C-alpha cells in the first residue's frame, strides 16, 4: 500500500482490475478546500490514458513491475524478438506492446516491463534518446534558414522525422523517443 505522497512518474498501481502507470501528476492545494492530486494514468495492458483525481493521503495498491534489460534482435510476422541480457533467453513481443517500434534498430538495449506476480510482459520502454543515421532527405537550400523551417528525413530504421533544413543525408542524429522528434546532431 502507498499513498498519494508516494506518487512519482512511472509508479505502477492496481486499479479497476488493471495495472496503471503514472505518466504525470500534480499536487494541488487550493485556497479553499482540501488538497488533491491530479494525475494522468496509462494502462499497461490496453494502452488507454485516463485522467484521475485523488484526494490527498488516499491509499492505493501498488503493483510490482520489473524492468529487465533486453536486446532487440529482429522483427518478423510473429512479432518483435528480444533477448534477455542476463539469461540469454529469447522472447517474442507483439507490436501492440511497443510505443515507438519504428525507432528501434537491431542490437539496441531496451527495458521490458514484466509483471512480477504473473510474469506477463506489459510493455517495452526505449531509452529517452536514440542515435540514428539519416538515409534520405532533400538537400537544404542556402539562405532558407530565416525561420525554423523543417523537412522530412528518413532514418535507417524506416521512421520519418522532421529535421531542420541544415541537416543533410548520412548524418547521425539524436531522436527523442518520447515524442519522435529531432533533438540534435551527433558529433
From TrEMBL:
**Keywords (A to Z) from UniProt:** Cytoplasm, Elongation factor, Protein biosynthesis
Family matches, as SUPFAM superfamilies: Nucleic acid-binding proteins, Translation proteins SH3-like domain
Residue limits of the Translation elongation factor P/YeiP central domain?
A: 67-122
Protein name (record): Elongation factor P
**Main localisation:** cytoplasm
Query: Coiled coil: which residue ranges?
Result: none
Any idea where this protein resides?
Cytoplasm
Task: Describe the location of the Elongation factor P C-terminal domain by residue ranges.
Answer: 130-185
Amino acid at each position: 500500500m502507498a499513498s498519494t505522497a508516494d506518487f512519482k512518474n512511472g509508479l505502477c498501481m492496481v486499479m479497476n482490475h488493471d495495472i496503471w502507470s503514472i505518466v504525470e501528476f500534480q499536487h494541488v492545494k487550493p485556497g479553499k478546500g482540501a488538497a488533491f492530486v491530479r494525475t494522468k494514468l496509462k494502462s499497461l495492458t490496453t494502452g488507454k490514458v485516463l485522467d484521475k483525481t485523488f484526494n490527498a493521503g488516499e491509499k492505493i495498491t501498488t503493483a510490482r513491475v520489473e524492468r529487465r534489460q533486453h536486446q532487440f534482435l529482429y522483427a518478423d510476422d510473429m512479432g518483435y524478438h528480444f533477448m534477455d541480457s542476463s539469461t540469454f533467453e529469447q522472447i517474442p513481443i507483439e507490436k501492440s506492446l511497443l510505443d515507438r517500434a519504428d525507432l528501434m534498430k537491431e542490437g539496441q538495449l531496451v527495458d521490458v516491463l514484466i509483471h512480477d506476480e504473473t510474469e506477463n510482459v506489459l510493455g517495452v520502454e526505449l531509452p529517452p534518446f536514440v542515435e540514428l543515421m539519416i538515409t534520405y532527405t532533400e538537400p537544404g537550400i542556402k539562405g532558407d534558414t530565416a525561420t525554423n523551417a523543417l523537412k522530412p528525413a528518413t532514418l535507417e530504421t524506416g521512421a520519418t522525422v522532421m529535421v531542420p533544413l541544415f541537416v543533410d543525408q548520412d548524418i547521425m542524429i539524436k531522436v527523442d523517443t518520447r515524442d519522435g522528434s529531432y533533438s540534435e546532431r551527433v558529433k
